[in-house]
Amino acid sequence: MNLKDYIRIYDNVVPDSFCDKLIKRFEENSDQWRTQTRENADRKFKMSFNQIHLLDEPGWEDDTKHLLEIVPEYIEKYKIDCKVTPNQWPINYTYEPPRMKRYEPNGNEFFSPHVDCFDGITANRFLVMFLYLDDNDAGQTSFPQLQLASKCIKGSLIMFPPCWPWLHAGEKPIEKTKYIIGSYLLYV
Predict the structure, then answer these.
(1) Spans of all domains in the chain
(2) Most-buried pick from 99, 113, 134, 170 (CB within 10 A)?
(3) CA–CA–CA angle 64, 21, 95 (5° rounding)
(4) How far apart are CA 89 and CA 79, in angstroms?
(5) 90: nearest Cα among 128, 124, 131, 129
(6) CB 134 within 8 A of CB 109
């Protein structure tokens, strides 16, 4: 297997109505938004978006529970598709609390190439999970070193390892806002 084989996309993970409901609730709860901006000129790195930490805010419990009930099926599919043997997979793991992110199509909101396991705090991450909540012609997750990009398709889930071989970027949406929910599987 090559590195691209560990990037998997599963369509129709959740229905459109569920995605629409989450987007509507995000927009109605601007008091829960946390603006994320970071820049490092030396590394040519920039990120900017708004997000809600779903487990930290009231009103998201049922939706979060529903998402975490769906995920195990796709974890099993991922393991089969990637030919993961039992000795490669941790006996015990947990989820990082999910966050819903919004990227505006203003040319300033994106997440430049990075990895999601980069220090002692994030070293327990072993699988990325991003659920796209809307269709978008741009704003894809790209893997520049692998010449690969996923499409933003409503209800689809992308999964891949968070480590340095899977450098990825959240590209700028162009014509409409992009919404995703992200979480990670964590070693315990």
Answers:
(1) 3-83+96-187
(2) 170
(3) 20
(4) 8
(5) 124
(6) no
Burial of residue 115 (number of CB atoms within 10 Å: 0-12, 13-18, 19+): middle
Q: Name the CATH topology of 3-83+96-187.
A: Jelly Rolls (2.60.120)
- Chain segment 9-38, per-residue pLDDT in tens: 999 999 999 999 999 999 999 999 999 998
Label residue 96 exposed, middle or buried (CB < 10 Å: 0-12, 13-18, 19+).
Answer: middle
Residues 6+ apart with CB under 8 A from 154: 16, 19, 132, 133, 134, 135
Dihedrals φ, ψ of 24, to 5°? -60, -45
* Helices 61-81 and 16-28: angle between axes, nearest 10 degrees: 130
Give the integer Cα–Cα distance in Å for 3 and 101.
Answer: 26
